Amino acid sequence: MSYEHIRVEPLTPTIGATVEGVDLREPLPDAVFAEIEQAWLSHLVIFFRDQHLSPEQHLGLGRRFGELHVHPAAPYAHDNPELMVIHADADSHRINGEGWHSDVSADIEPPMASILHLHQVPSRGGDTCWSNMYAAYEALSPAMQALLDPMTAQHVADYTGNYGDHAPQRESPRAVHPVVRVHPATGRKALYVNAGFTKRIVDLSREESRAMLAFLFEHVKDINFQCRFEWQADSIAMWDNRCTQHMAVWDYFPETRSGIRVTIKGDRPFNPEAGGSPAER
Ligand code: SIN
Fold first, then answer.
1. Of ligand 1's atoms, which has the minimum distance to the CA of residue 86?
2. Does residue 101 carry a catalytic annotation?
3. What per-residue confidence (pLDDT) applies to 279?
4. What pLDDT is attached to residue 201?
5. Which of 113, 141, 165, 258 is a plausible cystine mate for 87, CB 3.0–4.6 Å?
6. CATH assignment of 7-280?
């Protein structure tokens, strides 16, 4: 793929790329937007350095990709629930996204994308890792792919105790999704179960489901599917929740790491081979 308006430098052959030559504070001309979108669909997570975005500009960037999603429970900034706070410091007892997950996959229509802007980073550490779920699916044997393709799984969110006194924005969601989803833009199959939210494969007995999910949760962590991003202040990461999982590394306690995430709504995960049409699930 060649680009005329931006420079794209892959982080690994499998996932992740840095994008240069664009100032995200400015409204993106159509040709630049199309190349950023192409880089994002090709590399699944893209990174930008030295982007001094205001919250308004961050919201504007998100809206360029679609309608914004509101997290069910996390605190937000500037009285705007679309500006999710990502923050850890010496008083933190937990952080967001410490385990492998796809953002709010328990929503009936889980987020398509997330755009995280970190304002403050620790002196070292605080990286985020992403894993490629196309690669995770493609690395399975044809027999395992054929077994999983028709299956669906229950995803449940439980934010109890995560956010102190902050009142949730809405009820914790739950949904049944295909175990393997077909990406609506690329048509490729991606594994869509994650340790953060997926509780049960509904087509299997409880014991079989537990064993299969344990295997799949290990499988998605294969280092060969991953990239790891070292943040600087004013770095931005934009990832595709439909075909990646990520986890934030909390190795910097008691230092502070702080930023804002804008999240973009997605559609209902679908696989024509799995459990009927979306309307029937
Ligand atoms: C998240 O959005 O899951 C948190 C990611 C991070 O803090 O790196």
1. 7
2. yes
3. 47
4. 98
5. 258
6. 3.60.130.10
Assign 3-class secondary structure to the chain. CCCCCCEEEECCCCCCEEEECCCCCCCCCHHHHHHHHHHHHHHCEEEECCCCCCHHHHHHHHHHHCCEECCCCCCECCCCCCCEEEEECCCCCCCCCCCCECCCCCCCCCCCEEEEEEEECCCCCCCEEEEEHHHHHHCCCHHHHHHHCCCEEEEECCCCCCCCCCCCCCCCCEEEEECEEECCCCCCEEECCCCCCEEEECCCCHHHHHHHHHHHHHHCCCHHHEEEECCCCCCEEEEECCCEEEEECCCCCCCCEEEEEEEECCCCCCCCCCCCCHHHC
Q: Per-residue pLDDT averaged across 219-236, rounded?
A: 98
For residue 277, pLDDT over 70 is answered with: no
Domain boundaries, the chain: 7-280
- Tell me which residue has its CA closest to atom 2 in ligand 1: 97
* Global confidence as pTM: 0.96
87 is catalytic: no
Annotated catalytic residue, options 58, 69, 87, 101: 101
